[in-house]
């Protein structure tokens, strides 16, 4: 797949090999990483996407790079480097929900600098709308690289997106990790968070929605997406409006790897198709109406629904998600 679209999204974070456990004890290797999946999913949705991290020269790194290119992602660092590819061991429970163990010391995708990312973004400043990161990039050990980059890009007027896709079980100091994640969330204009992420962050509230509302009030975020797995998703606006949607179709769930990444890509692609050059994305977020919000939520949920019906992360195209959305109306009551 090629992508001739102008660069509208710059994204930085992990790219790794998922070793997914099978029932017979073997492991199925899949290209992955939440940020890697998000970049692929955005490009497949037709968003011009720039990935800022380098790849390893080993065979795994070259496979990761080739898949990105095939999906239409533009690489800011196409020259491979002499560092190993990161690995994740993924165990799936009976519902197909993953748990992870990561191997990330000295890996290729962490060989990135604030200066390089800012320079790469500046090459596309006229068309660039969205700056995205999250997941393993929120590790406190990489805060000095990614957080200054986000702050610089925010100062230029870009819309900052943080996927609070937390991995608390693999962080050496949970409180330091939480504190670091909150620093990222305070910079964000758009946040995606799951009910499990809110628990890991120890956000106050009796229900996931109450916790999300509390988080919304304590950040400067304009739009928050709260995902609840099979129980649907919420969009929360800083204006106080909330929108709920749940899939009406019965899904043949294979696994949930990449579902949240596909959801976020669908949401961002739908938002990106609403704004125009004379209406910057941050201004759109300040004025989004009910019809637009539900259309974005419907497309995001459709994107996730298609992903969970395939093994590993297979993000849908814009057309595939749009066709699913047309055929399967949302349930709009929790």
Short account of what is shown:
By secondary structure, the chain is α/β, with parallel strands linked by helices.
Can you put this structure into words, describing what you see?
The chain has a ten-stranded mixed β-sheet, sandwiched between helices. A four-stranded mixed β-sheet has the order 3-2-6-7. It has one domain (7-331): 3-Layer(aba) Sandwich (UDP-N-acetylmuramoyl-L-alanine:D-glutamate ligase), CATH 3.40.1190.20. The protein has helices at residues 34-44, 59-71, 114-122, 143-155, 174-185, 195-200, 208-217, 259-272, 281-287, 290-307, 318-327, and strands at 7-11, 16-21, 27-32, 48-51, 74-75, 86-92, 98-103, 130-134, 159-163, 190-194, 223-227, 233-237, 242-247, 330-331. Helix content is 37%, strand content 21%. The N and C termini lie far apart (38 Å). The radius of gyration is 18 Å and the shape is globular. A hairpin with a 4-residue loop joins β12 (233-237) and β13. The chain has 334 residues and is α/β, with parallel strands linked by helices. The longest helix is centred in the last third of the chain and has 18 residues, at 290-307.
Spell out the blueprint of helices and strands.
Elements: E1 7-11, E2 16-21, E3 27-32, H1 34-44, E4 48-51, H2 59-71, E5 74-75, E6 86-92, E7 98-103, H3 114-122, E8 130-134, H4 143-155, E9 159-163, H5 174-185, E10 190-194, H6 195-200, H7 208-217, E11 223-227, E12 233-237, E13 242-247, H8 259-272, H9 281-287, H10 290-307, H11 318-327, E14 330-331
Parallel strand pairs: 1-4, 1-8, 2-6, 4-5, 8-9, 9-10, 10-11
Antiparallel strand pairs: 2-3, 6-7, 11-12, 12-13, 13-14
Helix pairs in contact: 1-8, 3-4, 8-10, 10-11
């Amino acid at each position: 797949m090629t992508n001739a679209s102008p660069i509208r999204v710059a994204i930085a974070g992990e790219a790794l090999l998922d070793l997914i456990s099978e029932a017979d004890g073997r492991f199925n290797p899949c290209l992955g990483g939440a940020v890697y999946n998000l970049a692929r999913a955005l490009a497949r949705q037709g968003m011009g996407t720039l990935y800022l991290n380098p790849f390893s020269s080993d065979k795994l790194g070259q496979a990761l790079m080739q898949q990105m290119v095939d999906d239409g992602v533009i690489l800011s660092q196409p020259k491979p480097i002499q560092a190993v590819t990161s690995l994740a061991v993924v165990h799936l429970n009976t519902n197909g929900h993953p748990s992870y163990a990561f191997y990330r010391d000295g890996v290729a995708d962490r060989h990135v600098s604030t200066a390089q990312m800012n320079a790469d973004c500046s090459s596309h400043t006229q068309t660039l709308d969205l700056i995205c990161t999250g997941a393993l990039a929120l590790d406190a050990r990489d805060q000095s690289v990614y957080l200054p980059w986000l702050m610089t890009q925010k100062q230029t007027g870009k819309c900052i997106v943080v996927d609070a896709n937390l991995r608390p079980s693999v962080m050496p100091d949970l409180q330091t990790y939480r504190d670091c994640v909150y620093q990222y969330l305070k910079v964000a204009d758009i946040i995606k968070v799951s009910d499990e992420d809110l628990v890991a962050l120890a956000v106050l509230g009796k229900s996931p929605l109450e916790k999300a509302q509390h988080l919304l009030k304590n950040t400067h975020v304009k739009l928050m997406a709260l995902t609840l797995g099979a129980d649907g998703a919420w969009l929360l606006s800083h204006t106080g409006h909330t929108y709920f949607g749940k899939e009406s179709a019965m899904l043949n769930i294979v696994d949930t790897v990449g579902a949240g990444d596909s959801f976020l890509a669908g949401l961002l692609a739908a938002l990106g198709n609403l704004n125009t050059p004379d209406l910057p994305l941050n201004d759109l977020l300040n004025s989004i109406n009910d019809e637009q919000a539900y259309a974005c939520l419907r497309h995001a949920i459709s994107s996730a629904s298609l992903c969970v019906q395939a093994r590993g992360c297979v993000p849908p195209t814009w057309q595939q998600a749009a066709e699913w959305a047309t055929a399967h109306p949302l349930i709009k009551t929790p």
